[in-house]
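Field guide to reading this record: the first block holds the primary sequence, the second block holds the structure written as discrete tokens, and the final block holds curator observations. Each block starts with its own label. This record concerns Alpha-1A adrenergic receptor-like, catalogued under organism Paramuricea clavata.

BLOCK 1 — SEQUENCE
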Amino acid sequence: MVLPNSRHDYLPPPGFFTAMVGLQCLGIIIGVIGNIIVILYNVFAINPKLPTTYFVISLATTDLLVCCTCYPVWLIEFASVAVGESCIVHDLFCKIGFTTLSTGGALSIANLLAITIDRFIYISKPLKYPMIMIW
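BLOCK 2 — STRUCTURE
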């Protein structure tokens, strides 16, 4: 007999977790390949390196670290639920996932803010931009 307030009443169907695992694997693959392409293109490009180029490389590196650290932890969590087994080290994975997501999110936001400020200075003070952005 399952009580109405049982944990099993609130779980989605098993196909949902299988689909989520597949989508997360796809997201990891696309994220890693895409960010590596962005990094390699900007590092080996012939055109001169502007401050924006370094900000884009930094953002791609941060996103690559999130794809390689945060998403696999989530993947393990979803896979353990899809299989029907509780994760043995659930608390550890929860703490690692929260820490990597918080750190990666903060770094991504900081990079986007730096790119925004860079573009604002480039548009609002085009003649002073080289002196302001190159210290």
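BLOCK 3 — OBSERVATIONS
The chain has one domain: 22-124.
The two ends are 70 Å apart (CA to CA).
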